[in-house]
Model the fold of this input.
Amino acid sequence: MATSAGFFQPPRVALPMIDVCYGVGGVSGQPGCIRYSAVMKISKDGSEETVTNWALEKLLAINPVNKSFSYEIVDMKDAEKEATAITWSFVANPIEGWTEKGLTEFYGSALQRMAERMEAALSTQGA
Done:
């Protein structure tokens, strides 16, 4: 998927839930380019009306050797206000005095607190 066209038009098999995906800024495959992606859904009340959930995503880095890329969501609309999953990962060299388990638990608890604060902030905004 990490090809020059891959960011603007990912293979259907990579993101089968995306109904629409195209570039809106920059050159596909170049850091800084932005894509629009959207999912069409039937409304919760069961009517035939469709609702679009969309995101603008900015390419941060592309690695053709590993066939991977990193991007950030710069704007989004989730019409049904569903829960959004946040996936965090990190890479670290060994740190003197820390075990892998200890470091993972440290970051895990810090990220849990951050997620709780984000949830609280969103709930006070009526999101």
